[in-house]
Amino acid sequence: MNIYHYVPPQQPPNGYVGIDIEIFGMNDKTLHRPTSGKFACLSIAISPEDVYMIHDINEIPRAMYAVKDSIWAIHNAKFDLMNLRRWDKIEPRKKLWDTLLIERILYGGYFNTFGLNDLARRYLNVYMEKETRDEFKTATEMNEQMIYYAALDASMALSICYAQQKGMTKNDFKIWNEVDRDALWAVMDMKGMAIDVDKWLALAELNKQRGEELKASLPINPHSYKKLKLYLIERGFKGLKNTQEDTLIKAMHKYPKTDAAKYVQTILDSRDYLHSSSTYGRNFVEHHVEYDNDVAVIIPDWNITGAETGRMSCSDPNLQNIPVKATKEFRECFIARPGHIIIVWDYSSQEPRICAEITQDKRLLEILHSKNDIYCEMAWDVYEKRIQKSDPLRDATKPVFLGLNYGESSYGLAKTLGIEVDEAERLQNKFLKKYKGVAKLIEDAKHEKKYVKTILGRRAWLNPYSNQCERNAINSRIQGSAGDMTKQALAMMHKEWNFDCPFSVTGIIHDEIVADVPKEYVNDIAKFGQQCMVEVAQKMCPSVPAEAKIYMGSSWACKE
């Protein structure tokens, strides 16, 4: 490999180049935030054998201009591009090939790891050692080994790009060009969610108090697992193997009239509150809160395809995993910036509509076109009762349908509803007799052993040796399609907003998009976002009417 320590010559249009950036002393906890570390080098491979390396940050704009008409092959482009934006203006572009995201399009669910070294081994039979990469954490200058490593990264990205193209189908290109690439640019412009730190800490103390009070009401310490196990066995939980949540719930359903069953929910609630207090308390604030113009914010790492289904995920911290208990209380802590309003756009019944499009189930389509409440109608089909939206039976109906969409067993439904397994199985069977298209989807899933596709054709590979294979075959088609829909809506908002007022999306929570916008523009932006979501949904699911609701308020809890 030839390494040249200067800016590359101007490259011809539409050729591929590999790009990689290295930074000294980055903070491992904020790798998704381009705020730490010192520039080490920018490597640009114009061929697998020829790499140009820039060490002076003042030369970065000239180097990027030399490849402005090229197609950039980058592994985990979000990291490199967000850091390059510290020293050069990098605008959204079509000429981009992210080998990480492309690999997830090709083999989501088939492989578990998608690092550059994993792809080099798969495609090129090359082993890339990691030890040299770790040296960048503490080094301030590059030695010869580090120079070679940095050049190799750019070269490998380019070579892998060429290899991936051979396995790409027309539809794979479509998923990249129309969904994931545009969503990537949108994610790179997302801002942090403002947080009321004092309110967050007060909630942690309240949850601790709740947990301790419940714990004190019990005749035994719920955290003394050996003693608790013996105590529950003596009071009716025969053969109890452990005191984990699933085991206790199963025992409660099996022995509902025992003294032991009386304590289980209190035990679990106590644990949940105390866990929330410690996990989402002072440590959370110290690890994740930073300040943007004196406003406390949380800036998580949004991953374009973090799930096997192709859905987005979130980490450091995971805002998609806010505790179910007291969700509204947690969301109330995420507030609008001064002079701003929080907008939440929420797809109405996103998964039922996608299920109807995939299955063409006659009853499901009938309900959706009637514009009646879907779960009130399902309650009639399952429980033979006419109810209003305020009826608690509506909330008991949702898990029957949604659980089947997730491939949930009758045991899982029994756990959710707090009923006997036999009763849960009866409800599921009654539902499937009425919704024959959904029943066929579930039956067909039993025979899927290779992969399934979303509405747009994204593959989700299956493991035929896993006991989750059938469940994943059902779940991946619906959730994967939902993920594609939300990402396209996000990308459309990002691309097509052309008014003077900038606004920032701050969160993607499965079927909802959250934004923090100036008060004076809130109505225009709210309507614009809703139009984007409806347009995408109608295009993906032409058989069913699309609907996206708007919620506005001073905090993220405006939806609740």
How would you characterize the overall build of this protein?
By secondary structure, this protein is an alpha+beta fold. The chain has four domains: 2-168, Ribonuclease H-like superfamily/Ribonuclease H (Nucleotidyltransferase, domain 5); 171-190 and 310-315 and 336-354 and 452-560, 2-Layer Sandwich (Alpha-Beta Plaits), CATH 3.30.70.370; 195-283, no CATH class; 362-434, no CATH class. It is 49% helix and 15% strand. It has 22 helices and 18 strands. The protein has helices spanning 60-66, 77-84, 99-107, 116-124, 131-135, 144-167, 170-188, 197-217, 225-234, 245-254, 259-279, 282-288, 327-331, 350-359, 362-370, 374-383, 392-405, 410-417, 421-434, 436-445, 469-496, 522-540; strands at residues 2-4, 16-24, 38-47, 50-54, 71-74, 96-98, 193-195, 289-292, 295-298, 301-303, 313-315, 334-335, 340-347, 451-453, 459-461, 504-509, 512-518, 548-553. The strands form five sheets. Strands 1-4-3-2-5-6 form a six-stranded mixed sheet. It is globular. The termini are far apart. 40% of the residues are buried. The model has no long low-confidence stretch (mean pLDDT 92).
